[in-house]
Amino acid sequence: MTSMLASRHVSQAIRRNVVSLPARLHSTSAVNRATEDHEPKFLQAVGMFFDEAAKHSNATAETLKHIKSTDSVLSVTFPMEKDGKTVMIRGYRSQHSRHRLPCKGGIRFASEVDLQEVEALSALMTYKCAVVDVPFGGGKGGIMINPKDWTESELERITRRFTLELCQKNFIGPGVDVPAPDVGTGPREMGWIADTYRNFNPQDVNGAACVTGKALSLGGVRGRTEATGLGVYYGIREFLSFPEVQKKINHHGQVQDSSVIIQGFGNVGYWAAKFFEANGARVTGIVEYDAAVYSEKGLNIEHLSQWRKEHGTFRGFPDAKVIDSPMDLLEAECDVLIPAALERQIGLRNAHKIRAKMIGEAANGPVTPGADAVLRQNGKLIVPDLLLNAGGVCVSYFEWAKNLSHLRFGRMNKRWDERSKEQLLNLVEGNAGRPLSEVERRQMIHGAEEHELVYSGLEDTMIVACNETRQTANAKNIDYRTAAMANSINKIAASLAGSGSIFTHA
Ligand code: NAD
């Protein structure tokens, strides 16, 4: 086993090493079909978006340098046994910024994981947390495995071993760095992480807060599973309601009757599809890596999900047209296209073919900088990842706060609220001279449950962040990505000012 703990300086050296490695193979055919070879890698792309936004921020050049660079990275390699052979497993954790602690960001299991990807994702997490005023720095982790190649017990051993590495190197802890689910991971893996951390730190009374996205029985919060998809829905709904957006893309402004195509039917894509369907949109297409489905009248999301669970693919799904070359469906006409799979799905090869009016980036980094420019030139409206998919980290923040308080949201005040409202209602009824029906009465006095508080907090967060982004975009006449990132840079710069972590010249 080798392991490496790197400070900011060492991180730069590591990056030099990574650059000297053979170019990463973008194994999915989707990426090959979307991007040109000369397009920047993910980390460079995030840096390019940052540089553009920096021009519209108030931060000094010194502060910008500090914000842009990655604080620390951890790279570990450990052996696992598979079919009688030893396989070396590579994993990473990147802490992009510790201007606020803990660092926060998912852990993904995917065969394409590499250090530059994890660093890019951790940088996006820094900007994302600032956009939605979640008081965390940015982190991200990844293990370079295809989870489909491993049994459940092997995955458990890999997850626990990786967590042990994080514990030993102080890359995990409620006040240090808090992972969450991402591609290829979910509540099951988060449970293994929490348990391993607790075994390593039995004295830590706040141990449950070392990871978010846990099952409810392990200290999770209601609403976390669907949070990112729900946030995507709230964000798109908000942008559609802006008159300038309606004018730009010639849209009626309602989710109801809008057509939506979604790429990726995992956690984020599935839940986004559910919320759009439930609110009257027609989800006309879903794109997976092996096949896509299309129905002009709108797909039944639950039927589709059941079919995929039973058959492992969309192929053969009876209620829609099945498309064998799935990437074609990204180019179909629709009001909103939602990439919710992986990065670099819209590049210079397919950007000019996109016919959607609006692109809602549910995935991290789905549009390359070159494609971003082409789409905007073609009058498309892009709602950027650092804003649109922030619902996950927002509700992770609620889960973390719940774990630290050791108290379920609503437990202290639900009955008190109900009694106060009941007294008020009695007064109103007396004055109005008309008693309310039992149903009306129950609806009005109902005290909020945990999931209702979480939904409400998430909705408010998304609405505020969308409007802050809109204001900056309108005031400076810039696109929404640049505006969201400029706002984020200003907030981080403000928190760094006077912190002592930046050298100032007298
Ligand atoms: P997931 O693993 O649950 O789902 C990803 C889905 O995309 C899978 O169904 C997979 O088969 C599919 N997919 C993979 N390659 C594809 C391709 N080339 N074309 C079409 N489909 C493909 O992952 P997730 O948690 O839903 O994450 C999806 C994206 O959202 C990622 O970019 C992730 O970083 C981002 N994100 C996730 C969260 C979260 O809370 N889970 C939060 C913010 C951002």
From TrEMBL:
- Can you cite a GO biological process for this protein? L-glutamate catabolic process
Looking up CDD domains in the UniProt record yields: NAD_bind_1_Glu_DH (cd01076)
Q: Where is this site: Important for catalysis?
A: 182
**Which Pfam families does the annotation name?**
ELFV_dehydrog, ELFV_dehydrog_N
* Binding of substrate, residues: 104, 128, 396
Task: For this UniProt record, give its keywords in alphabetical order, as a comma-separated list.
Answer: Mitochondrion, NAD, Nucleotide-binding, Oxidoreductase
The record's principal subcellular location, in a coarse class, is mitochondrion
Q: Where in the cell is it found?
A: Mitochondrion
Does the record's keyword annotation contain NAD?
A: yes
Checking SMART domains in the record gives: ELFV_dehydrog
Q: Where does NAD(+) bind?
A: 228, 267
Source species, domain of life: Eukaryota
Q: Where is the Glutamate/phenylalanine/leucine/valine/L-tryptophan dehydrogenase C-terminal domain?
A: 221-500
Query: Which GO MF terms are attached to this record?
Result: glutamate dehydrogenase (NAD+) activity; nucleotide binding
> Which PANTHER family does this UniProt record tie to the protein?
GLUTAMATE DEHYDROGENASE, GLUTAMATE DEHYDROGENASE 1, MITOCHONDRIAL
Please state what the protein is called. Answer: Glutamate dehydrogenase
Q: Which gene encodes it?
A: GDH3
